Amino acid sequence: MVRASIFAVLATVSTVFAASGQNCSLTQLCPSDTPCCSQYGQCGVGAYCLGGCDPRMSFGLDSCVAAPVCESKTYDFKNLDRVTSNTKYLGDSSETDWVSDGDPQIYNDNLLLTMAPDSVGTLLASSTYMWYGNVKATFKTSRGQGVVTAFILLSDVKDEIDYEFIGVDLDVAQTNYYFQGIPTYSHGANISLSDTFNNYHTYEIDWTPDQITWKVNDEIGRTLKRADTWNATTNQWMYPQTPARVQLSLWPGGLASNGQGTIDWAGGLVDWNAADIKNNGYYYATFQSVTVDCFNATSAPGTNDETSYTYNSVAGTNDTVVDGKNSTIIKSLIGTGTDPDAGASSASGSSSSAPSATAETVPGRSGGESSGSDNHAGDSGSSSQTASTATIATDASGSTSTGSSDGQFSQGGSGSSSSSSSSSSKSGAEKLGASQEKVLKGSVFAGIIAVVAMMAL
Ligand SMILES: *[C@@H]1O[C@H](CO)[C@@H](O)[C@H](O)[C@H]1NC(C)=O
Ligand SMILES: *[C@@H]1O[C@H](CO)[C@@H](O)[C@H](O)[C@H]1NC(C)=O
Ligand SMILES: *[C@@H]1O[C@H](CO)[C@@H](O)[C@H](O)[C@H]1NC(C)=O
Ligand SMILES: *[C@@H]1O[C@H](CO)[C@@H](O)[C@H](O)[C@H]1NC(C)=O
Ligand SMILES: *[C@@H]1O[C@H](CO)[C@@H](O)[C@H](O)[C@H]1NC(C)=O
Ligand SMILES: *[C@@H]1O[C@H](CO)[C@@H](O)[C@H](O)[C@H]1NC(C)=O
């Protein structure tokens, strides 16, 4: 109910204002009034300064809010109690395991990442960061051309370790890695396995300072040694080495607005009239559980002794990560690393702070950006794709499904007939989710969001 009114307000607001966030990069840092560079390369405050905030591209190294250290834990998805929308999350990982963007749903004690028509899908990011360690996720992917399911580790300086699944290649898990988001088209490798839509498989990333192992159902699918990643030009290891969030996502690689390379990679444009849309109102990927086992190093790199990770240099390498005591929490969605108390409602709910008037507070995604450095050959100039293929024989032992191959559920028509949007069988909540995406995707007028988000807390 609160939600409905919030989004009604936002929808109205967004049509009135057309604020435009500034872009940020290594060569164009954010300005002081919107100091935080989001995962998507735009400047803002609030959620822009939380998970994904890139200290190298922000106004200062201390603009981003510190990142909660690793916690060893198994997450099952019996409810959404510890999943918090990125429009409400303020950095307290003791109360939130996952920060969501989009429309996560629970179905039969599993988490569904959903992607309804006109949405950019759903993304869940862990509230805590892994600095090396082991993470495994048991899930079934979505399907269909242009539909991408992903399970990745992504650091704030854009080190990345990936599993990605294209909805038309259901017998392949694509693996990849990036160092600081530098687009290299030669780091991919495939793992063959049985139908990822119909079978649960357990996908594992075992990450140490010297080696990354991708395992599916306990079998090694790929190994990468740091020793093999030396870049003689830059004199650096092009190897993921900084604290990273676990990200689970379902996103439309096949959106017309994406780069042609991404669309081709994703198997073509998304069909918004596919059977899954007709039957359920959305595409979906089904996550059963995620287990994080921290690396627990006794000395850096890879410790989780204190409360938070920050960086002490724009180099963004493992030796610039500080495992310290800086606070991870802001008081409102206009807070920043250097002004965490901004907007604190000391008197009443009135929005006191002037700086919020034009700042964006919740970063939005567009279709092609759901996983950090997801560049694809062909998006911007050409690149030769030289990569290896690792194959493991996988019996269907991962399968715990009951056999039916489609339409195993329908959640849509629960009687909530919301006024707006399309004629598909989406529930009211789903439609809200979709319109939320549209609002956040466009430029959002921050002060309103901040106030509204505080009201909703
Ligand atoms: C930011 O970058 C996007 C994509 O390159 C571009 O379309 C947009 O105009 C840029 N915005 C600003 C404010 O420079
Ligand atoms: C962490 O806290 C210390 C002590 O308050 C401060 O000097 C430092 O700038 C903070 N670091 C970051 C990256 O915020
Ligand atoms: C992985 O598989 C996909 C689809 O099956 C294919 O297009 C791609 O070229 C393969 N990548 C590698 C690195 O072999
Ligand atoms: C950490 O970074 C430094 C500086 O780039 C490098 O010399 C060292 O090998 C790195 N160590 C690991 C474990 O990646
Ligand atoms: C080395 O680093 C440069 C600069 O980031 C990059 O352009 C190049 O592709 C890298 N070389 C290799 C072999 O990865
Ligand atoms: C790290 O410590 C946690 C908490 O004590 C423990 O549960 C976990 O098994 C440890 N992980 C490793 C790899 O030692």
UniProtKB/TrEMBL annotation:
Q: Which reaction does it catalyse?
A: Random endo-hydrolysis of N-acetyl-beta-D-glucosaminide (1->4)-beta-linkages in chitin and chitodextrins
Q: Name one GO biological process term.
A: fungal-type cell wall organization
Q: Does the keyword Isomerase apply?
A: no
Q: Which GO terms describe its cellular component?
A: fungal-type cell wall; side of membrane
The protein's matches in PROSITE patterns, at most eight in alphabetical order, are given as:
GH16_2
| Domain GH16 residue range list | 75-274
List of catalytic residues: 160, 164
Entry superkingdom: Eukaryota
Q: Which keywords are on file for this protein? A: Cell wall biogenesis/degradation, Glycoprotein, Glycosidase, Glycosyltransferase, GPI-anchor, Hydrolase, Lipoprotein, Membrane, Signal, Transferase
InterPro entries in alphabetical order: Beta-glucanase-like, CHR-like, ConA-like_dom_sf, Glycosyl_Hydrlase_16
- What is the purpose of this protein? Dual chitinase/transglycosylase that plays a role in cell wall architecture. Chitinase and transglycosylase activities are coupled. Required for the polysaccharide cross-linking at the septa and the cell wall. More specifically, transfers chitin to 1,6-beta-glucan in the cell wall.
Q: State the family named in the UniProt similarity comment for this chain.
A: Belongs to the glycosyl hydrolase 16 family. CRH1 subfamily.
Name-wise, this protein is Crh-like protein
Annotated source species: Lachnellula occidentalis
